[in-house]
Write the structure tokens for this entry.
Amino acid sequence: MERDFDSDRMALLYEETKKRLDELTILYEMTKISHSALNFDQMLSEITKTLYDFFNFEMLSVLLIDQTTGRFTLHPSSIGFSADAIEALHLRVGKGITGWVAEDGASLLVNDVRNDPRYIGNGECVLSEMCAPLGVGGKVIGVIDAQSQRQNAFSNGDLQLFETAGGHLASIIENVRSEERYRTVVESALDGVLVMGEGFRLTYVNERLAELLGFQREELVGAEFLDFLDERSRQILTERSLLRQRGAEVPPRYEINILRKNGEVRNVEVSSTTILDYHGNTNKIAFLKDITEKRKMEEQLFQAEKLRAVGEMASGVAHDFNNALAIILGNAQLLLLGTKDKEQVDALKIIEKVAKDGAQTVRRLQEFTKSKVRQDLFKMDINAIVKDAVEITRPKWRDEAQGRGIHIEMITHFEKVPHAAGNVSELREVITNMVFNAVEAMPEGGRIEIRTFQEPEKVCIQVSDTGLGMSEEIRKKVFEPFFTTKPFTNTGLGLSMAYGIIKRFRGEIEVESEPGRGTAFTISLHTGGEEKEDRGPVETIKQGREARILVIDDEEHVRGVLMRGLSQVNHQVMTAKNGEEGLQLFREKKFDIVLTDLGMPNVSGWEVCKAIKRMSPKTPVGMITGWGMEIDETKKEESGVDFVISKPFDFSRILNLVTESIEHRP
């Protein structure tokens, strides 16, 4: 009796063990297939065939539910079933044995379908049917159904194992569907997407990332992502990894620089997270957005804003300097007219030259805001300008370099390019300044290369050198006013002024540089320009009739200089220290011409001009101002201003304008 009990227990244990082994075997085989590189239909076909062979079924079908209509669709992986025959049955949730299982969510075994009213068939001589739901997350997405022409073909053990397989198959189907949906989204994404395993090794990249890096996808998968980053970006990723290993939280978003296959550097914004794969391995999934152009635009806007702020500061400073220089230059010129002593003449000429040089420096400061003012852009022969700049700088890059025992090679490449719009002397100055900078960047010698080329509707000039190069931090600041890496030899205004000049031409200037690999400046200008020349300064004084002149200026010394200078050629001059006094004098006296300052308390120069034109429309009105470069043309016309003279002024220019204005007065 005891021996029989042991035998029964052993038999039961054997059955349980076999059942568990069968279950593990089928689940393992299904999982192995799901981890293959097959697509959804291929994977489902392989799993169906495995189940068919394992159970030794006669017929096995996979029916998936259309979640909108509730109808069943026979998957092509099904064995022993005809799609047309299934379609003819119009199976749906709640109809037939399969429909009942789908609706109830429970497995069903029918040993003789002839006795079950739920059965629907087409006379296939089916006697047994076993059906299990494909349920996941409380939702039934389909059923797996086995049928046999034999009665009692399936056991309860088969049903339990079949039910287990159905639950696992449902999870696999849902995971694959989700993966395919996500893969579709990822592959069509505008951003680059990557998955990294241990050691920053790439296990997946989408097509956009491959395009961004300039490689084929197969070249990237398996490679180390750090190989496609610059030094600083490698450091960022390594530090983030170390912090994460120590349990510290790291921001999900950060910026790095990637290196394209052609050597181009692109700035990307990264959004990353950590995921676990099927095997429990830690992976990083990251989305990379190319923000290179965005950052360039932000840099340009930031640069423009800084230049605007400096320009506002320079505008106020320039006005005060110009008033002071007008007094210095005016008195020097007056003294020159009245002295014959050579030593005094030489000394006065030095004062005159220094004052004019100072005025030129102030003019450059004002150029920061000159972009607001309309400027005529003339046709420029770009190749001729570059050739002139090369010749002008020859003493620097050849003679001076040879004197220091180094060799600098100058290489030029000129394409046939159309005329560009701008100002010849200013562009020549920009190119000259860039060549000087290139020479300073090559203390041991090297090569300067200048080339011209054409892009759609643009003419480009590139000045490159093989010098020391710049770090990214310095490169971003190179166009900033007063920024310099040579504090004792350079004012730092050269490149910022070059930037201002090119912007006034409505062009662009960009710089590329790396430490130890040289620097390249690229200027892009619009084609075209007006066919006219700048009017040069008038040097000889024209003789004209005497005139009654009213001078209005709140600066006493400026009034004095103008009165003495105009009186030297027998003009009758009266002065007023502000706008109200000037208008009162104009009402009481007769004047042939009025010269007024712009910035005065209470009544401005604009208001003075308007009032005089209302009283006497034919009386010429000239404005002498320290803000001459910034005069608004529209406001000038509205106020009736006939001409503008910038401080510091040249007396010959003022005298000739007075003469011309009087001659043309009716």
